[in-house]
Structures are given as structure tokens and as C-alpha cells.
Design goal:
By secondary structure, the protein is α/β, with parallel strands linked by helices. The protein is 37% helix and 15% strand. The strands form two sheets. A six-stranded mixed β-sheet has the order 1-3-2-6-8-7, sandwiched between helices. Strands 4-5 form a two-stranded antiparallel ribbon. α4 crosses α5. The N and C termini lie far apart (52 Å). Bound molecules: uracil and iron/sulfur cluster (SF4).
């Protein structure tokens, strides 16, 4: 029963000693670490400056991102860039990626409906995230929403309970050889799409900006 087996995971596609994000991105284009590559258009890897000090982690590419091959190019990305600006963060300090790098969806008629990635997809795709962190060595990583927060902090993490709190990223300890320098700080906040869906958008947006201002203190 292959469909109930755990995915093999991305690790075997991750280069041993990658020299650049571009090298990782090329390797990730061939990833078959879980079944999500089968129905998606392409791997959507992270993008941003190679010396980014702040990394945003989203959930997975959406419909538009799947087609364009770039993360956060839709409405959620627009809102995120606005919040970054209002939090006083320099966009040149940023790199943006996703916890899961293929678009999980179901097809209904001519529409592709977003499906939240499961724990197995988060685990399977996590080696790409760790590889991105180990190259970038950012000061702080910000998880946007529950899926990213689980990828960073584990399955039992609750964004509602712990959002806006800076803490050492637990993965630094898992990968001591990749992280010889000071540990990465991490934080979870709400996903920009949740702001777009909120009953009171102003309050939800204000909360996101406040959290980003806290995250920005680790850049000082
Ligand atoms: N939402 C995400 O989490 N990631 C994207 O890239 C786009 C929308
Ligand atoms: Fe590989 Fe991640 Fe895509 Fe699964 S979702 S095939 S692990 S890149």
C-alpha cells in the first residue's frame, strides 16, 4: 500500500555542500521527496537577497505561485510587503520561502482548490528549509501561519498561543555543523492570508505589523 507509506523526504535531493541558493534551487527543481510534485506545475523555491538577515517562511505556493514559479506573488505577498514596510524593515534584508515547495491542491472542474499540506509533507520538505537557513545564516526567521510554525517549532506548536515571541530556533541545535555561528532567532505570526480573511482586517493587520516589529529587534 504505497499511498500510506511515509514519503522518502527531500534529503536525497539536497546537495551535500551547496555553494549558493541558486544551486539549491536548481536541485529542488527535481525533488520527488513526496507525492506533491506529481500534480504541481513546478517547485517554487525561496527568493531574496543571498545575505538576507530576515527570512519569512510561508505555507506552500498558491495557484499563482505554482504557475509563476515564485513565492508570494499574489495578494498575500502584496499585504506582506506592505506590513514589512509599515514595520520599518528594509526589503533588502529579506528572503521569502515556503515550508512546502509544491502546491497541494484538489481539482474541482476547472478550478484548483488549495489544500493544507499535512505533517508528512512538512517533514518531507523540511530539508530544503534547513538548507536555505544554513546558507543564509539569517539573524531571524519568521513563520507565517500554522504550517510554517510547525515546520520550525514542531507539530505541537500553536501560533495562537505563542505568536509574536522571539525564541532561539530549535533546529540550530539539530544541525551544529551547519550552524557554527550564533543561533538563529525565530518567531511565529499569523499568515497574511489570514489577515485578508479576518472580520476586522485593521486589527489583524496591526497585529501582524506589531509582531514584525518585534522580529526586527533581532536585526539591531
Ligand atoms: N501563501 C503562502 O504561504 N506562500 C506563498 O508563496 C503564497 C501564498
Ligand atoms: Fe520535494 Fe517538497 Fe516538493 Fe515534496 S513538496 S516533492 S519534498 S520539494
Amino acid at each position: 500500500m504505497p499511498s500510506t507509506e511515509a514519503p522518502v523526504g527531500a534529503q536525497r535531493w539536497v546537495p551535500q555542500r551547496p555553494g549558493s541558493i541558486d544551486e539549491l534551487k536548481s536541485a529542488a527543481a527535481d525533488c520527488q521527496g513526496c507525492e506533491l510534485y506529481q500534480d504541481a506545475t513546478q517547485t517554487v523555491f525561496g527568493r531574496g537577497t543571498p545575505h538576507a538577515r530576515m527570512v519569512f517562511v510561508g505555507e506552500q505556493p498558491g495557484d499563482v505561485e505554482d504557475q509563476r514559479g515564485l513565492p508570494f506573488v499574489g495578494p498575500a505577498g502584496r499585504l506582506l510587503r506592505e506590513a514589512v514596510d509599515d514595520a520599518g524593515i528594509d526589503p533588502a534584508d529579506l528572503y521569502i520561502t515556503n515550508a512546502v515547495k509544491h502546491f497541494r491542491h484538489t481539482v474541482r472542474g476547472s478550478r484548483r482548490i488549495h489544500e493544507t499540506p499535512g505533517p508528512a509533507h512538512i517533514t518531507a520538505c523540511r530539508p530544503w528549509l534547513v538548507a536555505e537557513f544554513s546558507l543564509l545564516k539569517p539573524a531571524v526567521v519568521v513563520a507565517l501561519g500554522a504550517t510554517a510554525a510547525k515546520a520550525l517549532f514542531g507539530a505541537s506548536f500553536r501560533v495562537t498561543r505563542s505568536r509574536g515571541q522571539l525564541m532561539p530556533w530549535p533546529g540550530s541545535a539539530e544541525h551544529p555543523d551547519d550552524f557554527p555561528i550564533a543561533e538563529i532567532q525565530a518567531m511565529a505570526t499569523i499568515h497574511p492570508s489570514a489577515v485578508l480573511r479576518a472580520d476586522n482586517r485593521d486589527i489583524a493587520y496591526g497585529g501582524l505589523v506589531d509582531d514584525l516589529k518585534v522580529a526586527a529587534t533581532s536585526l539591531a
